[in-house]
Specification:
The structure holds 2 protein chains of 2 kinds.
Chain A lengths: L4 H14 L2 H14 L8 H23 L4 H31 L1 H5 L2 H4 L4 H21 L32 E6 L3 E5 L6 E4 L4 E5 H10 L2 E3 L1
Antiparallel strand pairs in A: 1-4, 1-5, 2-3
Helix pairs in contact in A: 2-3, 2-4, 3-4
Chain B lengths: L13 H8 L3 E6 L9 E4 H9 L3 E4 L6 H13 L11 H11 L7 H24 L7 E3 L5 H21 L30
Classes of the chains: A mainly alpha, B mainly alpha.
């Protein structure tokens, strides 16, 4: 393929029509697992996946009761199991992150918008439970100035008791196509990436590109 | 349980890396009612499942031959810094095939020992190259590393680069000439002071 943006869009178009939902789910799952912070919830993809899983389950039931070769049935079942595993692992990884950074999330509307509706409810219940638990077991017994759940003491300027995701963790990533020189976070150096280059880099520097789908975390 | 790999070891467990590898395509020769000579491309997990039930034989991928692997091994040994092009999941694919389709691989013992040698040489190369890391790097490029190698090395590289980033930060040491003066410094709890101007 020659250079130029037309080749890029051809590539994209082909990739779009040939990527199945399962492959998309796999990619989204990998990114979510490797990223130090919670990423945007892929509502449409998850909804379609759920629909397809349900369809598969019904098909398998029909097959097994209509006497189709049990080998075929078990192969379909294996495929279904694999997809279900991806879905569950994706959701569980996100729940783990929510559990870890619940106060950071509840104070941060931008991050909160990345959650699905049910995750928002989960995060809310988590923070309420945790607050109540800490109040009853520890905070009520501390001297007056130290009772806040978010700040170490009254004189803290920021919420320093809130764990935040480490955005400058180093992550391993691969680009899907040529990425012209872009600036690395925190310095003037420029980096360019060819497809299939493996880079180890600050998550911060490539955060947006991961969300856009230009770079995959490995 | 899905999603419960131990984050202290590595983000992905070995099984999860294998799971990803199982979606790679391989050719099989089914010995079912289909035409015996039809080569079909299926995902690896499907091939292994069929093989376990005796319904097919698996054609080993082209890179898993004695000649190709010997070439790769020699090239790996010849170069200190470059990694040879190998399929991203070569470790997992070869492991699955050795475990389940040994009889489908010609010269399997030779192939197996070649793959293991390649793994050793590559890993040793990774280790020696990492030893040369001695300054703050914002990004590191290592091409042609495979999935399993990345997974094993990830926690160490992450923490090492992080430590360099933190401790070699120019904000702590405003003296720009420090690079020539790398004597070991006595540990001291105060913020670092510049030793010479």
């Amino acid at each position: 393929m020659a250079s130029g943006s037309t080749a890029g869009t051809d590539d994209d178009y082909e990739a779009l029509i040939s990527t199945t939902d399962v492959e998309l789910l796999k990619r989204v799952w990998r990114n979510e697992k490797a990223a130090p912070e919670i990423l945007r919830f892929e509502t449409a993809l998850i909804q379609r996946t759920r629909g397809q899983i349900q369809l598969m389950e019904e098909t398998i039931e029909e097959f097994s009761s209509s006497g189709i070769d049990p080998l075929t049935v078990s192969l379909y079942q294996m495929d279904l199991d694999r997809t279900q595993y991806l879905l569950r692992s994706y959701l569980r990884t996100r729940l783990q992150k929510i559990g870890k950074y619940m106060f950071h999330i509840s104070n941060n509307p931008e991050v909160q918008n990345r959650l699905s509706e049910q995750e928002k409810g989960f995060a809310k219940r988590c923070t309420e439970d945790m607050e109540r638990h800490l109040e009853e077991s520890v905070l009520s017994k501390l001297p007056d100035n130290y009772r806040d759940i978010l700040k170490q003491s009254i004189i803290s300027e920021e919420n320093d008791m809130v764990p935040e995701p480490q955005l400058d963790t180093f992550v391993v990533c691969k680009s899907r196509r040529f990425l012209g020189p872009f600036q690395l976070d925190g310095s003037d150096e420029l980096l360019e990436m060819k497809p299939d280059d493996l880079c180890i880099i600050h998550y911060k520097s490539i955060k947006e590109r991961v969300q856009e789908g230009e770079i995959d975390l490995v | 349980m899905a999603g419960q790999s131990d984050p202290n070891l590595s983000l992905f467990s070995a099984e999860e890396v294998e799971f990803i590898a199982e979606d790679e395509m391989v050719e099989i020769v089914p010995n079912l009612r289909m035409d015996a000579l039809n080569f079909i491309c299926v995902p690896l997990w499907l091939a292994v499942a069929l093989k376990k039930r005796g319904k097919c034989t698996i054609r080993p991928p082209l890179w898993m031959s004695v000649e190709k692997l010997t070439q790769v091994l020699e090239a790996e040994r010849d170069s200190q810094r470059v990694f040879e092009q190998l399929p991203f999941h070569y470790v997992e694919i070869s492991r699955l095939l050795f475990d389940h389709a040994r009889d489908d691989i010609p010269d399997v013992y030779m192939v197996r020992s070649l793959v293991e040698d390649i793994r050793d040489v590559r890993f040793h190369k990774v280790e020696t190259n990492l030893e040369t890391l001695n300054e703050r790097a914002l990004a590191l490029k290592i091409n042609n590393l495979s999935a399993m190698e990345v997974n094993i090395v990830r926690p160490f590289i992450g923490r090492a680069l992080q430590a360099f980033y933190k401790h070699d930060s120019p904000e702590l040491i405003p003296d720009q000439e420090r690079i020539s003066d790398r004597r070991p410094q006595v540990a001291n709890n105060a913020a670092r002071r510049h030793l010479r101007r």
